[in-house]
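Appendix B. Chain record.
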Amino acid sequence: MKTLFTLLFLCTIYLAQSQTIYKNPLGFNVKFDKTWKRLPKEVLQEKTKFIKTYMEYKGNIQYDACFQKIGNADMDYPYILFKNFYATTTNENEIEKLREFYTDKFGVNKVLESLETDKVKMELQIGKTYYDKGKQLLIFTYDLNLNVKGNLIAMVGFYVGKSATLQILCYTYADEFKYDQKEFLDIINSIEDNGMKTNMRDYLKKHDQAVLYYNEGLKQSANNNINKAIENYTLAINTYPIEDKFQLSEAYYNRALNKRKLDNFNGAIADYTKAIEFRPDYYKAYNNRGFAYLMLEKYSTAIYDFTMTIKFDNYQTEFTGMALGNRGIAKLSIGEDGCEDLKKAIEEGNQNVKSIFYEYCN
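Structure tokens predicted for this chain:
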């Protein structure tokens, strides 16, 4: 049966190279219910291009961690951004100073003036403030008038006294303002403090070094220096702090991709398994691990992984079609009916299994 897999194998290799870069806020677990969905990074950046040009949104804001409410297609909902402050306090006096700082109209306007240009002027109105002493949660509301665009409504929340202070920024233009403070509170209250095992000084040092190794791995892999790529991903894995679960899962996933290029399927399986341990819903890792099992003719195990891919991807990306095709082939390989999976795979856009479908299912 392996000869039947060649075309599918090439397609899988190509698609599996695409990576999603999303960094969870340090020390926190962010869970959204099903009425919220992740907004693609490129869409967010396009929508925020104007604001990003004039305001302080830089690399330490988690652009990738943005969500919008699912609603009518023509409705823009607020965008949620997360930013870590690598310091924290439980001191009530310090918290009060923080509140005063972010509600000082004169001070905030001075900051805005430094961002103004000949074409862009800004005027700030400070709205309601909210403080939950028990949860040590601060919320501020702002109405920012941009003379060339209109009013920008923003809510800013701070978790203080946690593992690391987390800022949550929710904003939209006034004519798209379709949420209230309670909804923002619901969002913030869905964030759980996981605690930090690594002290902040060591975390920053290790994280930054691991990112260098990881990026070098990407570079070496792109240049087809497979062994060098594996070496750098290994260094990244050994350096990332335990809090960097997402980054660790990506490093294991990418090391597995390179091991598979060397036909080291068992090594790839081990790394995909680690990636799944760090991210249990990592559908790409399930699909690729299933494919490795398929190449080793471990069909029942492969079928399980493809089923998990479909479950977690839930028909959202091309990986569902890929997994349906792979699962159909695995079923045919052990004498089961895989034709329905192959048919669905084709319907999902996986044209690579057409020849197998027509040969075995007609």
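Further analysis of this model is presented in Appendix C.
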